[in-house]
Write a structure and sequence with these properties.
Length: 403
Amino acid sequence: MIEFDDACELILENTNQLGTDERLIEDAIGWVLAQDVVSPISVAPFRNSAMDGFAVKSQWLAECSANSPRAIPVGPTSFAGRPASHYAADSHALKVMTGARVPDEFDAVVPFEETDYNEDEARFFRPAVPGQHIRPPGEDIARGQKLYAGGTTLGRLDIGILATIGLRAVMTHRKPSLMIIGTGDELTDPGEEQTGDRIYDANTFTILSLVAPYCDRVDRVCNVPDIKEELQKALSSPHDVIVTSGGVSAGERDLVIDIAESCGWRRVFHKVRIKPGKPAYFAVRGKQILFGLPGNPLSAAVTCSVFLIPALKKMAGFTDYRLRPKPAAMPPEDSRKSDRKLIWPGFIREEAGRTTARFSPKKSSGALTALLGTDGLIIQDATDINSGDATVEVILWRDILKP
Ligand code: AMP
Ligand code: MG
């Protein structure tokens, strides 16, 4: 049996960042950039109009006012993507639409609504400020500007920015492929009828949901008729990560470890001094890693959160993959007697710079609803008394489950 911190370290030591590959920008949400992104172009690329209106020389309008408007002949129209070619910049205003090129001879744009105009001429009622309503080249993004550093996780707001500088694809860290295998003769799939002593398989769905953001592909099998043969097959699969649920404790049908080791997996640890999650098992084979998570549903959820997710984040190139527990105060009557480190869901409040924590009232590692409404995990060192040292550590779900 090893300590919790040692288990966390051993997992990360045996987990390596995967390689990189190119991804289409629209498929890169939630992926980690493996390159800096430097804009190859200026945005806007050329001087253009911010309004529909008339491009003018501001000096033409210097003297005009509401009482003495200035009439100027109107030349051709410059459309976005279709600039005007023949125009008389010395005598005619140019009609320009938003996004259309404004030739260098003009230094201001006056919106249509500030003028009176017909096909032949426009009347202006006030002076124009040089530069008004003209977007200079590079107004938004300068050529050579660094927009993202490698290691940034791309979010939904970033994809348009990559598109605006003309990138079709970016280099990102690969995410692992993952195989989940649920073991247990008692399990049946949600949606099926519950018969005999069967219970629904919760764990493979818990794991599936928790790992999804960090994986490229997730396969799942559960309760196959010949578990031994299926385990052998699954444990020999080429996935980067294999996760089993159940079958790693001391029960008579707890086959996972023996079969894994007969399939070439090398044990790194089995059993951690924590509650829940004591039977957790971790093994490696070449660059692959295997997590044997306990079957009790809360144990599976907690060990998946503290062991599996940091490993997946590291593989996928996330820079902030470690758990970062923070100290919190617990009302002494709330602390629990335990001969192992408790890692239990609970309610965490931050008020006036002080963090307080209370355990979820459910005390069974089989009770998945201990998770309901909780803010994160509370870590309490083993203690043989019910109260006393009431300082614990907490990790918010928000941090565990980001991005
Ligand atoms: P095991 O670790 O296989 O001994 O299972 C411990 C407990 O967890 C038993 O009560 C199992 O029925 C239950 N269990 C195992 N696998 C699952 C699962 N996938 N979903 C829900 N409960 C499970
Ligand atoms: Mg079992």
